[in-house]
Design brief:
Order of helices and strands: EEHHEEEE
Number of helices: 2
Radius of gyration: 12 Å
Structural class: alpha+beta
Distance between the termini: 28 Å
Shape: globular
Number of strands: 6
Largest sheet: 6 strands, mixed
Strand content: 35-45%
Strand order of the largest sheet: 1-2-6-5-4-3
Length: 93
């Protein structure tokens, strides 16, 4: 397990969640090194439409790709998943 700083407090990335991310989003492996900066200083933050405790943190990692890290905020903040997208959110928190 690894912990990261975030404006919402410490965020945990468990071994189970990291395995999940790499299994379902194998294209993200080269971008793993950006997780800390994406959590610490995201470019955009969006709240999930489905769960008000879930936030999506966006960080550009190339000209056309954004790293999205999805976190659950509660007593123990943790990473749910992460993926790449070429879309930038219209609104931010």
């Amino acid at each position: 397990m690894e912990s990261f700083r975030c404006q919402f407090g410490e965020v945990e990335l468990t071994d189970e969640r990291e395995t999940h991310i790499f299994q379902f989003h194998p294209d993200i492996r080269p971008y793993r090194k950006y997780f800390a900066s994406a959590l610490e200083k995201p470019e955009f933050i969006r709240r999930s439409k489905y769960d008000p405790l879930v936030l999506l943190l966006y960080k550009p990692v190339s000209k056309r790709k954004n790293l999205v890290i999805v976190i659950k905020t509660n007593k123990r903040n943790f990473v749910l998943t992460a993926y790449l997208t070429d879309k930038i959110p219209r609104k931010s928190l």
